[in-house]
Amino acid sequence: MKRLLFAALILLALASDSPVFARTEPQRAPQPLFRDPICDGAADPVVVWNPHTRTWWMFYTNRRANVPGLSGVAWVHGTRIGIAESRDDGTTWSYVGTAAIELPAGVGGPPETTTHWAPEIVTAPDGTHHLFLTVVPGIFEDWQHPRRIVHLTSTDLLHWRYRSTLALASDRVIDAGVHRLPDGTWRLWYNNERDRKSIYYADSPDLFTWTDRGKCTGVGERPGEGPFVFSWRGRHWMLVDLWRGLGVYRSDDFEHWTAQAENLLAQPGRGRDDGVNGGHPCVVVNGDRAFLFYFTHPGRAGTIKPEDKDSLALRRSSIQVVELHERDGLLSCDRDAPAFVELGAKHR
After folding, report:
1. Distance between CA atoms of 255 and 214, rounded to whole angstroms?
2. pLDDT per position in the chain (348 positions), as tens?
3. What architecture does CATH give domain 22-333?
4. How many helices (H) and strands (E) does the chain have?
5. Helix (H, G, I), strand (E, B) or coil at 243
6. Count of Cβ atoms closer than 10 Å to residue 272 Cβ
7. Which region, left, alpha or beta, applies to residue 339 given φ > 0 means left and ψ of -120 to 50 means alpha?
8. In the beta sheet, which residues pair with residue 161?
9. What are phi and psi of 227, to 5 degrees?
C-alpha cells in the first residue's frame, strides 16, 4: 500500500506544475544563497521556472573573480553566463554549468574573448524562451568599449540561437529588463551609458522587432543600471541599481514612474556575505508574496586598502535573497530577517 501511495504522489507531481522534489515545509534560505564554484563571481541574477527540467534556474553573470594575473577590469570581461538550479522552492541551489550561447562572426568578437553580461529571460505565450544579453567584443582592462544588447531564442533554456542585435540609442548599452504590457506587446528597459548611464526603453510587438523610445520619464533622470520591472499588488514596479542600494519606482501604466524616497538594500546587513549594499536585482512573484534576488561584493565592507584592490576578497560576489513587503504603495525588505522562500511553480 505504501508503494502504491508513493507512486501516486510521484504521478501527481509530474502532472502538476510543482517541482518534483518540493519540500512540504519551507526552510530558511542560507546566506549567501549561492556562490559560483568555478570563478566565484556570481552577479546579475535572473530566476526563471524551467518547464523542461521542472526546476528553477538562475542565470547569472560569472565574473572571473578568482582568475590570477588579470589587471584593471579584465576580470569582469571574458565572462560566460552561469546557471544554477533549485529542485525545491528556491532555497537550495546547485551549479549546472554555463549557457550554450553561440554568436555569429562579427557579433561580439572572437568566441574565446567575447564577454557576456546581465542575462534577461522571458518566455513568450508560444513557449519560446527569449534571452536579451549584453555583449562586449573582447576582454578589456577599462570600461571604454562598445557594448550591445543581443536577442537569442531557445526551446530548452540551455541552447541559445542568435536572432539579432538590437538597434538602441547608442553603441554602449547594457542590462536589458523586459516585461509584457497589458496590450500584449513588450517593453525593454536598459542603461544607455552614453547618456550618464540613464535608463532608456524600447517597444516591440513580438520580441523580435524593436523601436527605441528614448529616456524613461521619471527614471532616466537618475543614473543607474540593471532595471528590473515586475507587477505585484495592483501596481507596476521598477528596481534600479544605483550603486548605493536599489532605487524603487512605481507606475500605474508603465509610462509614468514615481520614485520612492527610500532605497532598498542601501544599509548593510548582518548576515554572511551581506554586509554591503545590494546590487542588480530580480524579483519572482508568487501570488501575494515576492522574493528579491540580488548580489553583493562582501569584501568591500569597511575600509579598503590600496594593496587589496585586485584581491579575490574584493572581486568575489555572492547571490542573496530577501522577501519584499508592500504597504501603502511603498516597498521594503528586512535583509536580516529569515527568508523562507516559496517561489511556486510558475515564472513571472
Report:
1. 12
2. 434 433 343 333 444 444 444 455 778 999 999 999 999 999 999 999 999 999 999 999 999 999 999 999 999 999 999 999 999 999 999 999 999 999 998 898 888 899 999 999 999 999 999 999 999 999 999 999 999 999 999 999 999 999 999 999 999 999 999 999 999 999 999 999 999 999 999 999 999 999 999 999 999 989 999 999 999 999 999 999 999 999 999 999 999 999 999 999 999 999 999 999 999 999 999 999 999 999 999 999 877 777 777 899 999 999 999 999 999 999 999 999 999 999 986 543
3. 5 Propeller (2.115)
4. 2, 21
5. coil
6. 12
7. beta
8. 102, 153
9. -65, 135
CB 259 within 8 A of CB 221: no
Show the cell assigned to 173: 548599452
Which amino acid does the sequence have at 344? G
d(CA 54, CA 50): 6
| Inter-residue long-range contacts of 68-71, CB under 8 Å, 24+ positions, other chains counted | 70/310, 71/141, 71/310
Q: C-alpha grid cell for residue 65?
A: 573573480
Residues 65, 42: Cα–Cα separation, whole Å:
9
Contact 201, 216 (CB under 8 A): yes
Dist. CA 117–CA 126, nearest whole Å: 26
In this structure, what C-alpha cell is assigned to residue 244?
Answer: 548605493
For cell 515576492, the residue is 290
Backbone angles phi, psi at 330, to 5 degrees: -125, 140
Q: Any idea which residue has 574565446 for its cell? A: 112
Instruction: List the end-to-end C-alpha distance of the chain, in Å, as a whole number.
Output: 39
